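go over both lines:
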Amino acid sequence: MKGDLFSSEHMVAPATAPGMTVENAKCVRYVVNGEMLARQGAMVAFRGDLGFERKGQGVGGMLKRAMTGEGLPLMTVRGQGEAWFAHEAQNCFVVDVEAGDEFTVNGRNVLCFDATLSYRIATVKGAGISGGGLFNSVFSGQGRLGLVCEGNPLVIPVSAQAPVYVDTDAVVGWTAALETSLHRSQSLGSMLRGGSGEAVQLVLRGEGYVVVRPSEATPQKAQQH
């Protein structure tokens, strides 16, 4: 076969290392030798002796997901082979989580991760139910985490001298050492008189990084976790 479709730009090359790598801007490849976890429905192709099984969250996990709207519908991938993961043609990125680190991320941005990582659903400090409810998944351990993002993300350094204010619908994640709170930028009266609607932002203070996507979640996609 000939043509641009069969050029080296699109052709999958032989795997050079086990584990997770970025195949291209829209897809992650995982060379499985044992077990890994991925978002349900994210597998677009695989080869080899692999099995896919929905991962249950247990009664407590299901209750928490029902209350918070935040959850990771996961599947476990076991065996030996290669699998490719993608989600709605969003851009893909890999984060290396080191031992002792924590990375908090919105569930809608999780694609796949090493089985050596663990996660928990946590309330964002300063943004509880009274603030509308804001919950993220906190990853810890040591391993690689594959993320998706609509567009190219902004990675903004945060320092004690320069806190960062982020729209709650645009934030992807941040390093867990940062302190969070909510900031209300205008009164309800201002909104009713034709304000911008940017009424509440997530404030991050301390030393670290926040990842922001260059768009706000639409009401439909904001509910997809």
